[in-house]
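Quick entry between incubations.
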Amino acid sequence: MIEAKGVFLRYSEGTMALKNINLKIEAGELIYITGPSGSGKTSLLKLFMGVEYPTEGALEVLGQSMNKNQYAKISQLRRSIGPVFQEFRLINGRTALENVILGMRFLDIPSGQLKVNAVNAIKKVGLEHKAHSLVENLSWGECQRIAIARAVARKPALILADEPTGNLDKDNALNILELLTSFKDKNTAVVITTHATHLIERDINARYIQMSKGSINYERLGIAINEETIL
Amino acid sequence: MKKLFYNLSYFIKEAKTTIKLNAMSNFFSFLSTGLIFFILAMVISGWWISNQVVAAIQGEAEISVYYVERIDNIGAAQLVERIKGIDGVRETRLVNESEAYRRMVEVLGKDARVLEYFDENPFSPFIEVKIQIEEMSAVLRELGTISGIDYVRDNREILDKIQNIAQILKVIGYLVITAVGITTLVIISHIIRMGINDNKEQINTLRLMGAPEGFIGFPFLLEGLTITIGGGVLASALAAVALNYVYAQVAGPLPFIPLPSREDLTSNLIVLIMSLSAVLGIAGSIFGLTSAKRN
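Done. Structure below.
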């Protein structure tokens, strides 16, 4: 699903954001990428989304080689990804339902199915009573849930959630993580970045990757980094 | 295509939202586009009318061929036939002395009394030759080779002037159409770029979710098209009122000016302005989208 071999990312202003990333993510996996701010978590997701391209090394996402010359194909690849952005990126002036539908309009989903998928996704995130509310009138947590609904309604092969717990209180953050992990199935991989390692509940089936200064420090299956530290 | 069809209501709604978000600037864009198209409509109608007048005058372009006195009526009739065979000659007619006299009486009006001082009819018979104005030189050259012709009055100076006016009008018409076309393109592309800039966040989000460029750009294309077509409708309405007024002012007092039918002119003008507004709207929007994408 995702394979990175010796990937480096240097931004145009010179910052080395990622160093020698070697990583393989299979379908149906749940991956937590943790680490402090500036450790390279968001940069790694940007590479997976095709927002940035490796300056060195090889990266393949869903069978697509990620390099600058493949923009049209990468645009198509993004249709198989359910992104949950750090700052939600919901579109103001539209309702929650319209936002979720908008994320599917250009996919190969029959027109009659768009609303059904959107309503189901909004139900899953528990906000059916807010479906017709304008997104600017929703709370932070509700916006986060609608952003997740928009991502999962697309029935993606890969869900990429960038700091979905940021700015949420503990209870809401736990709810969001629980919600996101519930969308993992045999065909869908879920990748979540977070710096709040204390919120991650131990999941025997999850893989935990800790990053620091642009490199992968640890990679463990079934044991969260904080637990390992405690152990 | 199927996707375009079932997303049409979304595109229309998005275009409406974009227009509403910049209501004031879009309103002024609509007004300025309307005024530009109105100026274009007036120039084109002026061009069409003058072309029609020039064509009518050109249709009347004629020269007078005087023949030597020794030629009798049969010889004159033969000469008429010979001249009729020249390329560029549309019509020939023999005008005898009496008709020439009568015409001069008509031309002179009250002053025709002066003709009474002549004991005999002072006018000679001649052949009236209607020609295609652009073939005038060739016709005159050919007439020079025919024996029996005494003198040709060719009104060349006047006919040349008419031809020059027609050429100038044509050039001015093309220049104005080009100027208006470029101005409209620039205005519309700026409007579109403004709309794109105001919706940068939304566009980036759609791109990150894999929306094709056509899907992202179509509402902006509709926005540009709405403004130019709106401008076209405004210009057409103003032009219809203006033509009505001009015809009322000109047709009565100056009945001899061969104006084209007002209804035909108005309907042709509306079809042209609406088609141009659609074409320029699409072209301007595509231009705006392309340059915004480049930046």
